[in-house]
Structures are given as C-alpha cells and as structure tokens.
Write a structure and sequence with these properties.
The complex is a heterodimer of chains A (about 375) and B (about 300).
Chain A (H helix, E strand, L loop, with lengths): L1 H10 L4 E5 L7 H16 L3 E5 L3 H7 L2 E6 L2 E7 L5 H9 L16 H4 L6 E7 L13 E5 L4 E5 L6 H9 L6 E6 L2 E2 L5 H6 L2 E4 L2 H5 L6 H7 L8 E2 L2 E2 L1 H14 L16 H13 L6 E5 L7 H13 L6 E5 L3 H7 L2 E6 L2 E6 L1 H6 L1 H8 L2
Parallel strand pairs in A: 1-2, 7-14, 7-15, 10-13, 13-14
Antiparallel strand pairs in A: 3-4, 5-6, 5-8, 8-9, 11-12, 15-16
Helix pairs in contact in A: 4-15, 9-10, 11-12
Chain B lengths: L1 H12 L2 H26 L7 H18 L5 H30 L3 H23 L19 H4 L11 H18 L1 H11 L1 H6 L4 H24 L14 H11 L4 H20 L6 H27 L1
The chains are: A alpha/beta (about 375), B mainly alpha (about 300).
Chain lengths: ~375, ~300
C-alpha cells in the first residue's frame, strides 16, 4: 500500500516526499523494504520528510532530525549528535527538571506494598489487530491498595491496548488479570465493575453520550447498583440525587441535570465524568486514562486532589497519561512502557533527578 | 365530490361497524409498530418485520391446529408463545449476523423478507387445504373472541380482543422503555453503542434481546388475522403491515403511546379507501397515504436538523 502511494507520488514527478507515520501498518519485514526504497530514493536526490514517533526508526533512516513537542521545535541537527536517550529526553521535555511543576505526594507509597495486591497483571500477551496495533508482550504489573501507579510511554506504545485489556475489550492471548485474589480475565466489563473496578476513558467515545442528559449518563455506568436500579426499575429519585451530588462536589457548571451533556463545556463534562466514577464509593480499583486532558491548570489541580482523595479509602489507581507532569504529580510509581513491554518502573523522584533514565527506558 | 364524502363519513362513523373495522385494522399496526420502535430505539433498523410477522404467525397457526384438543386457557398462551418464538427466531438470524458477523441488519432483514415469503408459501402448501392457499381452520375455542360476541359492540366487524391486548402491550412497552434499566440501556445503545459498551453494556447480547422482542411482537401482529379474522394462515395475508409499521413507528418518534394514535390514523385511511372504492380507486388512497407519510417525515427531518444546528 505504502509502495503504491510512493509510486503514485514519483509518477507525478515529486521531488519531496512527506511520509506521516508510514510504518504504522507495516510489519518488521515491510519496514525494512520501505527503508530500502527510501534509501534508494535518497541516492537519486529526492528529499524525504519522515514523520514518526518511533525513535529506533529515526536513528535507522534519518540524516537530520527535528524534535517537536507541543507544536514547537525543541531540538534539531545531524543524526550523529543524538542517541536514543537524548532523543527521548527531548521528546519528554526538559520541563520535568523544573521543580515548580513537581509537588510531592503526602501519602507514603512504599508502606502500601506490604498489603495484598489490588490488581495484578500477570504476563499479559495480546495479539496485534487493526484496532489495537501495538501488541502487549509479557507485561506484568502489580498495583497495591492506597497507591497510584502511572503508566507512561511515547504515544502508541500500548497505552490504549492496556486500557482495553482492563475493560475487557481486548482479549488476552496469554496471561491473567487478578483483582484481589480472583481472576477476572474471563469476566465481561459489567462483572468487573460490579467487583469494584471503575474506568475513566476517552470522554467522547468511551465516557459520555453527549445527546443524553447528565443524569442518564451518570446512571449509565452503574445500572448494577441496587440503590439506583431496584430489580429492573430505575429509581429516578435516587439517581437525580446522585447526579446532583456529582454536580455539587465536582463543581460542574450545568443549569439543569436534565440537560444533555452536549450543552456543557468540555472541562465541565470531564469533571462530571470523573465525578461519576469517583462517586462510586464501592469501587476499589480505578483506571484513569488521560483524566485531565485539555483542562486548565485550576481544574487539573482540582481533579488531581479528587483523585488523591481516593487513597483515603484505600483504593488503587492506575493513571494512563501522556502528560508527564501529571504522571509525576500523581504517581507513587511510574511504569514506563515501550513497544508493548514494561520497560521499567521508576519513582517520580528518580525521574526528576535523572531524566536520562526515563529517556533510556522510553527508547527501548 | 359531496357524494363521496358522505359515503365516507356514513361508512366510517355512521355505523359501529365502520369504527370496528378501523380498530380491527389498527390492531396489527400497533403491535407491529411496537416491535419496530423497540429495535429503532436500540439503533437497529429492523425492516424485516413483514417476514418475521409471516413466519411467526404461521408458527402460531400451525400450533393452533395441533392444539385443537387443548382447552383455550392452555392452548391460547401456547399459540402466542409459538408465534413469538417463530418471529423472534427468524429475527435472530439477522441479530446473529449483526452481532457476530457485522452484517448490517438493514441488508439482512430485507433479504430475509423474501426468504420468509418463500418459506411460508412452501410450508403453507404442505399443510394447505386442497385447492386453497391457506391452512385448515383452527378449532373455534382457540379463536380470539370478537368484540361483537364478547361485548355486543361493533356488530359485524372483525375487531377482537387482541385490540385490548395490543393497547395493554403499548402501555407495557411504554413502562419498559421509560422506567426500566433495559429501556435506559437500550436507548443509550441506540445513541452510541461504543460508549454503551464501555459503560458495561453487553452489546451483542442486547442485539439478540432487541431483535427477539421486535420479531416476536411482529409475529403477534399476524395473530390478529389468524386468530381473530379468518382463523387460518393464508399465503401473503399481511399485505405490508410490516412495512407500514416502520413508517408508523418513525412518525410516532418511536413513542409507544403515540404509536396507538398514528396506527388509528392509518387504519382510518385504509378503511376509508375501501369505503369509497366504488367512486375512487383505492390506489388513490395509497398515494394519499404515501404523500402524508412523506410530508410528516419531511417535517420531522427539518425539525431535527434545526435541533442539531
């Protein structure tokens, strides 16, 4: 497919080829072939701009490299000046050395490890599919009650896949998921929720149905709750009460909870979404994916405080985020993933003092 | 012109017979449109109601034939059960294809309509009374009593107690849709099946449930003819109720109680067509019916477009 596209461009006598993540759908062999073609094009004098987030590919194919972060050029030069580590730390950003952004946690994470595990991922293996391209390879991780574990990696290295393994949307090829002492690998999402798991996914596609009212959305992910649904009948009074509480506690600006969610601003929707899940007082294990994406500093701080409050009831939290600042502020431990593997576990202190170590893990 | 109008009003409202016939025609429309509304709410465009109606009511008719020795108290529920089972099983073919093979239900149900016609014609031929296109008459104690016999009203009309059954079901569906977990989750699925699935709703299972309910209700619509009118199954008897039900449900905004009103309106049109048959070809009423339908849908589409803007 890529070959055909390149051929089409060459036929039109193109001098400059711009490729955006061309290896996304290729296997190892395909990448090798593509690189061979690109090198031969280079030798006949074509210019190639190769956009990728995969560091090894940059090192393999590029003559010069430019690192972009948040829409700005942060580094650039001949490829000889860079190693995998330095590239990775540029991608991550020097920001992490700025202590202003780093507020240490008050709770003690190490004490938590004496307890039983809240959730154990045991040697998780998944297949690579069209929807979930990055296969998880032998990924193991333990999360303890009263602990926040951050999952960090360059985008597309298995974050989405991990989230969907936890929700049950991506089946395991091998391995086991153990919640408390019970395997939940075979359980559907509803049963996992009933056993105390709570999820915050992408708001528009996994969280809220914008055309439905706030109260309908609040009940949607907990229709198994006997206080809200008695036998089969929905108990509107209790649901409205709960929705009002979420609005109040999470400071959601909404004139009326019977309004569709679409009438709220993105930030208010996000607050309501987290509020809905955090209001599940029975939940003991939280999976939060990009919990504060696109929110202003004030709201972000507010939600971070709310997430930390979960620790008071000894819940365990897994935060999957591309915001390193968020990961560092929230986590007791940071699990770094690269190419679907667990590359290593660092503490926020270690990352802060020595960003090179994070860079090395990211580039693996 | 005045002639026609007076014939019309005389026929429709001048006698209790006319009103009875309107109610008789409305009964299957209500049942079938309720079936349609359940699937539409879930975002499943089941347009195979006609086929499900035929298959289901044939099952009901055959069951009624076999149960002639059984009392009405046991026999009628069994007939209803068999009809429901037939209609829902047939709808589940499309449900399975949608859930497990990702075949769009519009395509599969449309095709299955043809299968249903062929299949029911074939089976009817096997069981048919010689020289006819219908099965043998079912035992009188399994007939749905006409209101003229049960209550002494609407003399001569075929309207029967299934009318009350349909009205009761409309209320039941109303309750299920607005007051229960099933209704809420199904609505959510209709708005966004992806968000619904990340909220813990088993979409595949729900597709099966919704298609089964939809097909089963369509099958019961056929019983109005089988148990309440001719007392046998006749080839292609339904004359498009399964398709009309789609329009009725859409016009009613899939609201179970509004479906009753819209069904009565279309039943009135159909009966009127028969009444003025001598003066106006009944095809004219069909054109009128279609024009009204188009107009209503046009108005609805315009309104919803304004809403989203």
């Amino acid at each position: 497919m890529q070959k055909l596209e390149i051929l089409k461009a060459l036929y039109r006598d193109a001098q400059i080829l711009i490729l955006d993540e061309p290896t996304q759908v290729l296997g190892v062999k395909g990448v090798g072939e593509l690189f061979k073609i690109l090198r031969s094009l280079r030798s006949v004098g074509k210019t190639i701009i190769f956009i990728t987030h995969k560091i090894p590919e940059v090192l393999a194919i590029a003559d010069r490299v430019t690192v972009l972060r948040r829409g700005a050029v942060v580094a650039g030069g001949s490829i000889g000046e860079f190693s995998a580590d330095t590239l990775a730390s540029y991608i991550v950003g020097e920001k992490i050395i700025n202590p202003e952004l780093f507020k240490p946690l008050t709770t003690n994470g190490s004490a938590a490890q004496d307890k039983k595990t809240a959730l154990e991922l045991s040697r998780i293996v998944t297949a690579s599919t069209k929807e979930f391209p990055m296969a998880l390879k032998d990924l193991s991780l333990r999360v303890y009650p009263g602990e926040i574990v951050g999952i960090y990696g360059v985008e597309g290295n298995g974050q989405k896949e991990l989230f969907n393994v936890l929700t049950g949307h991506l089946p395991l090829k091998a391995g086991d998921l153990i919640l408390g002492e019970q395997s939940i690998t075979a359980l559907p999402l509803r049963a996992r929720m009933q056993r105390g798991m709570a999820f915050v996914g992408e708001r528009q596609t996994q969280g809220f149905i914008a055309s439905l009212s706030l109260w309908e959305n609040v009940i949607l992910s907990r229709t198994y709750d006997a206080a809200l649904v008695r036998w089969w009948r929905i108990v509107l009074k209790n649901i409205l009460f709960l929705a009002e509480r979420v609005v109040e506690v999470f400071k959601v600006k909404i004139p009326n909870i019977k309004e569709p969610v679409a009438s709220l601003s993105g930030g208010n929707q996000q607050k309501a979404l987290l509020g809905r899940e955090i209001a599940k007082t029975q939940a003991s294990f939280y999976v939060l994916k990009e919990p504060t994406r696109g929110m202003d500093i004030k709201s972000t701080n507010f939600l971070h405080d709310k997430i930390r409050e979960l620790l008071q009831r000894d819940a365990a939290v897994l935060v999957i985020s591309n915001e390193l600042a968020e990961i560092l502020r929230l986590s007791h431990r940071v699990a770094v993933i690269a190419r679907g593997r667990l590359a290593g576990i660092l503490t926020p202190d270690e990352i802060q003092l020595n960003p090179q170590r994070l860079g090395a893990l990211l580039g693996q | 012109m005045m002639d026609i109008l007076s014939t019309l009003t005389q026929h429709l409202f001048g006698s209790s017979y006319g009103i009875g016939q309107v109610l008789f025609r409305a009964t299957p429309m209500i049942l079938c449109a309720l079936g349609a509304s359940i699937s539409f709410r879930a975002g499943l465009f089941n347009i195979g109601l006609e086929g499900q109606l035929l298959v289901g009511s044939l099952c009901g008719a055959l069951a009624a034939g076999a149960l002639s020795g059984v009392s009405a108290w046991l026999g009628l529920p069994l007939v209803f059960f068999c009809a429901f089972l037939g209609g829902s099983s047939f709808a589940l073919i499309a449900g399975y294809l949608r859930a497990k093979r990702n075949v769009h239900e519009v395509v599969s149900t449309m095709m299955l309509n043809f299968v249903a016609i062929g299949l029911t014609n074939f089976v009817t031929k096997v069981f048919a009374v010689p020289e006819t296109t219908h099965t043998s008459e079912i035992a009188p104690h399994l007939w749905a009593p006409r209101l003229s016999r049960a209550l002494g009203i609407f003399e001569g009309s075929a309207v029967n107690i299934l009318l009350f059954f349909a009205l009761a079901l409309a209320v039941l569906v109303f309750y299920v849709v607005y007051q229960t977990r099933f209704g809420l989750e199904t609505k959510a699925m209709g708005h966004s099946s992806v968000v619904a699935s990340y909220s813990g709703i088993d979409i595949d299972k729900r597709i099966f449930q919704v298609m089964a309910l939809s097909g089963g209700l369509a099958a019961w619509a056929g019983l109005n003819f089988v148990l309440g009118y001719k007392h046998y199954f006749e080839m292609n008897f339904s004359s498009g109720v399964g398709f009309l039900a789609i329009a009725i449900s859409l016009i009613a905004g899939n609201h179970p109680l509004i479906i009753i009103v819209v069904s009565l309106f279309f039943a009135l049109l159909e009966e009127a067509a028969l009444a003025v048959n001598v003066h106006v070809p009944k095809e004219f009423i069909q054109v009128l019916e279609a024009a009204i339908l188009m107009g209503l849908l046009f108005a609805a589409a315009k309104k919803s477009r304004l809403k989203t803007a």
